[in-house]
Amino acid sequence: NAGVTQTPKFQVLKTGQSMTLQCAQDMNHEYMSWYRQDPGMGLRLIHYSVGAGITDQGEVPNGYNVSRSTTEDFPLRLLSAAPSQTSVYFCASSPAGVSNEKLFFGSGTQLSVL
Amino acid sequence: AQSVTQLDSHVSVSEGTPVLLRCNYSSSYSPSLFWYVQHPNKGLQLLLKYTSAATLVKGINGFEAEFKKSETSFHLTKPSAHMSDAAEYFCVVSDLGGSYIPTFGRGTSLIVHP
C-alpha cells in the first residue's frame, strides 16, 4: 500500500516560475490537505478538500491554487513563485471527510525559490 | 476558535531520564487532541490521540499523554528517553467549532544526550 505519495521530493525554482506539486493517495480518503512547514512555525494549512470537486482555503492560501477532480489526487499549484514560498510542503489525507481521524502524511517536498 | 500552544520550543534530556513535552489547548467544544512526531527529514507520524474516551492515552514507543480539561492541557510524557526519540513533536487540536480542521502547534524539538 503506497499511502500518500508526493512528487517531487526536491525542487528549485526561480522567482516568477510556476509549478505543480503532486499528491496522490490510494486509501480512498475523502479529506486531503496541503501544509507548509517553516522553522518555528509548525505546520500551516494552505488549502484543503473534503471530497472531489470541493476545496477551501486554509490559513495561508495566497499564491497557491488547488483542484480536486478525483478522490485520489490533490495537486498544489504555485502560480508565480516567490522567495517567501521557500518551504517544506506536506500533503496529508484522512478518511471519511473532516473528522477527528488521524492524518496520513506524505514524505514532503522541499522547495527553494531563488 | 480552536488553538494550541506548545510551551517549549526545545527540550533537552539525557538518555534514560523522563520526557515531558507540554501542550495547552483552547477549544469551546469537546476537542480531539493528537501528538505527532517528525524524525529528521521524514514525514509526520501519529504518536497518540484523545477523542473523549479515557483521559490517559497510551501511544507508540512508550509515550503517553493525559487530557486534563480543568487545566486545558495535553502533555506528552515518557518515563525513559531513548536516543531514537530525538525528533520534532507536534501537538494538534481539532473540534466542531473549527469544522474538525486540525490546528498544529509550533512544535517542540526534543534533544536527547547520551
Give an account of the 3D structure.
The complex is a heterodimer of chains A (114) and B (114). Chain A is mostly beta strands and 114 residues long. Chain A has strands at residues 4-7, 10-13, 19-25, 31-38, 42-51, 54-57, 64-66, 76-78, 87-94, 104-105, 109-113. Chain A contains no helices and 11 strands. In chain A, strand 4 (31-38) and strand 5 (42-51) form a beta hairpin. Chain B has 114 residues and is an all-beta fold. In chain B, strands 2, 5, 6, 10, 11 and 12 form a 6-stranded mixed sheet that branches. Chain B starts with a strand and ends with a strand. Chains A and B meet through strand 5 of A and strand 5 and strand 6 of B.
Biggest contact: A-B, 20 and 22 residues
Low-confidence stretches of chain A: none
Summing up helix and strand content along with how strands pair, one would put the structural category of chain A as mainly beta
Tertiary shape of chain A: globular
State the total count of DSSP E strands of chain B: 12
Helicity of chain A, as a percent range: under 10%
What is the count of helical runs of chain B? 0
Secondary-structure element pattern of chain A, one letter each: EEEEEEEEEEE
Low-pLDDT regions of chain B: none
Oligomer: heterodimer
Structure annotation, total helices of chain A: 0
Task: List key phrases describing it.
heterodimer, A: 114 residues, mainly beta, seven-stranded mixed β-sheet, four-stranded antiparallel β-sheet, 51% strand, globular, B: 114 residues, six-stranded mixed β-sheet
Set down the secondary structure blueprint.
The complex is a heterodimer of chains A (114) and B (114).
Chain A: E1 4-7, E2 10-13, E3 19-25, E4 31-38, E5 42-51, E6 54-57, E7 64-66, E8 76-78, E9 87-94, E10 104-105, E11 109-113
Parallel strand pairs in A: 2-11
Antiparallel strand pairs in A: 1-3, 3-8, 4-5, 4-9, 5-6, 7-8, 9-10, 9-11
Chain B: E1 3-6, E2 10-14, E3 19-21, E4 23-26, E5 32-38, E6 44-50, E7 56-58, E8 64-68, E9 73-78, E10 87-94, E11 103-104, E12 108-113
Parallel strand pairs in B: 2-12
Antiparallel strand pairs in B: 1-4, 3-9, 5-6, 5-10, 7-8, 8-9, 10-11, 10-12
